[in-house]
Amino acid sequence: MQLTILGTSSMVPTKERNVSGIFLDYNGDCMLIDCGEGTQRQMNIAGINRNKVKKVLITHWHGDHVSGLIGLIQTLGNSEIEEPTLHVFGPKGTKERMFHLMNTVSFESKVNVKVKDLDPRGKLLKFFENTDYALECIDMRHSTPCLGYSFVEKDKLRIQMPKAKKLGLKEGPLIGKLQRGETVKVKGKEITPEMVATQQKGKKVTFIMDTQQTNNTLVLAESADLLVIETTYLAEKEENALKFKHMTTNQVGMIAHTAGVKKMIMTHFSQRYKETGEFEKEARLHFPESYAAYDFMKIKV
Ligand SMILES: [Zn+2]
Ligand SMILES: [Zn+2]
Known about the structure:
The protein has 11 helices and 18 strands. It is of the alpha/beta class. It folds into 2 domains: 2-155 and 201-300, 4-Layer Sandwich (Metallo-beta-lactamase, Chain A); 157-198, no CATH class. The strands form 4 sheets. It has a 7-stranded mixed sheet. Strands 7-8-9-14-15-16-17 form a 7-stranded mixed sheet. A two-stranded antiparallel sheet has the order 10-13. Helix 10 (249-259) packs across helix 11 (277-284). Bound molecules: zinc ion (ZN) (2 copies). One zinc ion binds next to loops.
């Protein structure tokens, strides 16, 4: 799985930073977490094929997180894909907002836009699941309804080929069956997955955008391999953070530490900051594996 951070500025794009957008590529199954203005161009520069986006997870309807959406849909509609489908998930009211958004510009869209409102009501909500991963969300605390998201990969059986070969197995459909947890027969002898495979723990990535401190950040990020989190201000601006419902280095460092995550990437920096070295310094007082994001940063998980 690879993430590309497409924008790291809060509110407005600056010369160095675009507004929010994160591209997640899971073995070619691709999604965006937020799609601020200019996200399409950022994808161009990052060498990402926009047609690969199949899902958009909207954290909230502030412009710096959604203003690029209509442009993306228009582009997908002009692409050579036969019947492009885009799944849009977002907080309560997303369906209605999408209806209005689709009617703000004049174009014939052949994109099948499927919208789903998510309403976790304070509890972790699993809203999507396939054989490889699940998507979860929970409410954040911002000036408009806002959700945080987790991408949770499922545990997988990893076949130890030397062991399997000793039992007479070869690469092929039987290995596939074992990987799916089924028992197979070789020369009349039963072989169970436990005999040739080990469990590999799935990865978890959590995305927390605009919010003030809330216990839900801990619920959502618990034991994540990677936490991407808004850190609009340095510690001294706690008053601003409270007033505008955002977070500081101190707060996110504590969250990463308490939630037991492995690594934290800070983003959504106020435009008052030109450098982000201080962000890392301050957050590391609480959580050593803290890093400041920059536009086009790639992270392998
Ligand atoms: Zn924002
Ligand atoms: Zn916001």
